[in-house]
């Protein structure tokens, strides 16, 4: 949460897409039969509702202080299984007052004990417990649900998952924020991980994956770079394998939001429902501000040189803020307009975390993680008024770091086994076409061969989800995998959990491709 122009001959493309759809249809039939068969066996042999978890124990007696009884989590009417949560300081200093709140879930019965996924939400200052409760934790409480349910698509199906509220000042985390930039954030998080591993020693040496969304597009690459450049296995005993960032802040706002905004409106004219007069006005402003034909002129495969900024600086020029114009007009047409997922309509659903759409929700019932019984169950400080996104400035004087596309991200891609950027195509806050611009202009420059950007076009309908079909676009070059997910918004794992799990399987090496059809199907890139 954040508080291609050449496709080849049309006939050849249509034939290719028909072939893919036919293959997917065949796979869908076999997938459904296989899934139904497995479900019938499960129902016949296992009458208990909750899934089991891997048998994981920790030898340090201090770990027991963080143990959470999965049978007594408030409002959850099934046994989640064991987990561990609480506060751990960011250093071993005697007078250290800064502590980060975490919740660790072990893998389910099909998961592996050899891996550890780290997740952080963005903001800056938004809680990672949102990722746990509404995206990929073992139980989920989605918007509009009366009670939590088991999460079929939980990332605990793959391995242990560690949710951390960071930087200092976020969620239940304690202490006075002091971070000046992303290097400070990375150093503090690595300090936390060192203390965490001394308590949960059995997690040392695990294959490690850094993941996050939105402003975590800043956090994750800088944390990964810090681990690669400033730690060794003797100072941080984790084996970093790669990163996942979805709908990430990786470049300038004018590029990721302003340039593609009017094109986004035209793509979803039936959703925005603007009249022709306002559409003509937007086109006029976009043309004057050099936004209108930017993608057609500059985003080519391969790039024809450095891509220019549309105005005089990295910010939108005066009278060129089309994004705000669109957002304000959208709220007039549709008061329930959700910039995070533009397909959402009235009524605005009740949200147990109090943030169901574009704005914070005023509600009588307490936020789930602000309840006394919930705090007690997960060892959270009782004196903290928990909110999803803090009013505290986690960067007291601002974040002085440049976006990672210009600094650390190329190095992280170079040193990682796999790096994944995922983008929901229904996200208006950060628009997928903007991510394409950043990749073509900055991310892959001077990386593995010295070529700029992707050299070949991103194929349409090339991301295939098992048992679903074509659900977006996929491309891979020089260590970077880029996936666009149709129908998903800013929180891809929430809107399209099956797709997110499949991509995560790929990041962890359990699949050869994010878009593989079946066990022995072709790679679709």
UniProtKB/TrEMBL annotation:
Gene3D superfamilies: alpha/beta hydrolase (3.40.50.1820)
Pfam families: Peptidase_S10 (PF00450)
GO biological process: proteolysis
Keyword Nucleotidyltransferase listed: no
Alphabetic keyword roster: Carboxypeptidase, Glycoprotein, Hydrolase, Protease
Listed EC numbers: 3.4.16.-
Keyword Coiled coil found: no
Protein origin, superkingdom: Eukaryota
Transmembrane residue ranges: none
Family designation: Belongs to the peptidase S10 family.
PANTHER family the UniProt entry points to: CARBOXYPEPTIDASE, SERINE PROTEASE FAMILY S10 SERINE CARBOXYPEPTIDASE
Identification of the protein by name: Carboxypeptidase
Organism: Russula ochroleuca
Lineage: Eukaryota, Fungi, Dikarya, Basidiomycota, Agaricomycotina
């Amino acid at each position: 949460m954040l508080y291609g122009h050449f496709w080849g001959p049309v006939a050849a493309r249509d034939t290719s897409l028909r072939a893919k759809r036919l293959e997917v249809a065949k796979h869908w039939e076999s997938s459904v039969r296989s899934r139904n068969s497995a479900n019938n066996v499960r129902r016949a042999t296992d009458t208990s509702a909750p899934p089991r978890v891997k048998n994981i124990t920790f030898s340090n007696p201090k770990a027991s202080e963080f143990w959470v009884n999965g049978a007594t989590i408030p409002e959850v009417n099934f046994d989640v299984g064991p987990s561990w949560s609480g506060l751990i300081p960011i250093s071993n200093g005697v007078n250290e007052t800064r502590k980060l709140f975490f919740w660790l879930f072990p893998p389910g019965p099909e998961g592996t004990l050899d891996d550890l996924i780290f997740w952080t939400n963005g903001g800056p200052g938004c809680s990672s417990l949102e990722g746990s409760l509404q995206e990929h934790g073992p139980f989920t409480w989605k918007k509009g649900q009366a009670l939590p349910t088991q999460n079929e698509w939980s990332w605990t199906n793959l391995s242990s998952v560690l949710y951390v509220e960071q930087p200092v000042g976020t969620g239940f985390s304690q202490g006075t924020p002091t971070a000046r930039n992303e290097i400070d954030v990375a150093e503090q998080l690595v300090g936390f991980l060192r203390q965490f591993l001394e308590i949960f020693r059995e997690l040392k040496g695990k294959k490690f994956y850094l993941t996050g969304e939105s402003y975590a597009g800043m956090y994750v690459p800088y944390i990964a770079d810090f681990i690669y450049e400033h730690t060794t296995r003797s100072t941080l005993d984790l084996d970093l394998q790669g990163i996942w960032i979805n709908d990430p802040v990786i470049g300038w706002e004018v590029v990721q939001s302003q340039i593609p905004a009017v094109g986004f409106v035209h793509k979803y004219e039936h959703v925005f429902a603007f009249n022709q007069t306002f559409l003509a006005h937007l086109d006029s402003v976009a043309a004057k501000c050099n936004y209108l034909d930017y993608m057609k002129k500059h985003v080519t495969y391969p790039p024809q040189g450095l891509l220019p900024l549309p105005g005089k600086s990295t910010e939108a020029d005066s009278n060129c803020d089309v994004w705000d114009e669109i957002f304000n007009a959208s709220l007039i047409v549709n008061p329930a307009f959700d910039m995070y997922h533009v397909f959402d309509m009235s009524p605005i659903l009740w949200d147990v975390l109090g943030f169901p759409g574009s704005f914070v929700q005023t509600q009588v019932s307490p936020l789930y993680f602000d309840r006394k019984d919930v705090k007690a169950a997960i060892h959270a400080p009782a004196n903290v008024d928990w909110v999803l996104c803090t009013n505290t400035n986690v960067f007291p004087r601002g974040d002085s770091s440049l976006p990672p596309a210009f600094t650390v991200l190329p190095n992280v891609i170079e040193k990682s086994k796999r790096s994944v950027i995922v983008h929901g195509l229904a996200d208006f806050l950060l628009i997928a076409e903007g991510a394409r611009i950043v990749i073509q202009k900055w991310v892959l420059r001077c990386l593995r061969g010295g070529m700029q950007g992707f050299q070949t076009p991103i194929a349409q309908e090339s991301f295939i989800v098992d048992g679903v079909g074509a659900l977006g676009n996929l491309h891979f070059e020089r260590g970077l995998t880029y996936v666009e997910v149709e129908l998903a918004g800013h929180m891809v794992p929430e809107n399209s959990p099956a797709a997110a799990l499949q991509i995560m399987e790929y990041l962890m090496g359990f699949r050869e491709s994010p878009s593989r059809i079946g066990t022995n199907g072709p790679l679709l890139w």
